[in-house]
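User: What would this chain look like folded?
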Amino acid sequence: MNQEATLAYIKQHGILPESKFGQNFLCDDEVIASIIDLAGIESHAKVLEIGPGIGALTRELSKLDIDLTAVEIDKRLAELLRNDPEIRAEVIDQDYLKLKDYGAGSFDIIISNLPYYVMTDIMKKIFAECINARKMVFMVEEDAIQRINARSSTKQYGPLAVLVGTFGLFEECMRVPGHCFVPKPRTMSAVISLTREGRASVLSPEYIRFIDSCFAQRRKKMINSLTSYPKDKVLSALADLGLKSTVRAEELSPETFIRLYDAIIS
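Assistant: Here's the prediction, encoded as structure tokens.
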């Protein structure tokens, strides 16, 4: 669905992109094809698309032999998707962050154009609930990559970077300029992929709460943030890992967080 077709579709249906939903509709066929290729979708895969918008990517996904679910917060767009003969998907018209009972654990592939203002919350929910996803392909603002792929002991390093590092392999795949969207955003975008590795099995709502707790007072000793866990157990776990009781969360790698968590909850 190129720019000309996108503009015609928007005009035909009287669509006014909503800034409150971060709506910038992808309108570049080459980028769409690249996203699908990066996802490595196999026949009969269960695919979750979050924020399909007017369905440029959804139509191409519908050509594959897959089980597709699309979650769209904008009810008017969701209705258009449901009535589009080219789209073969279960369309859910709800805010993904409020969505429950959607078979999260069954999805193999997650694809989304993530608005910056809800990017972290959506990614955390995916990590917590889509526990069997093997691949994720996201469109994000280029500037967000500094937080997504931050290294320990840097100011950008936080819970999101830890969870991404826990899930597996991160790759920045391509830059996407503003003219590939309608309306044109002010910032450069990028497509990233995350590939599941063995350590991702630790991801759960409980583990994510643990990571958030560790960073609750990031400039202070981590021991002062983990007040919901027995202090003696935390001190013992730190000592067993050769860490000082004065260590701060930003100093620990994703692998060390996993070992610390396992030691505390064992």
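The first helix runs from residue 3 to 13. If you want, I can go into more detail on any region.
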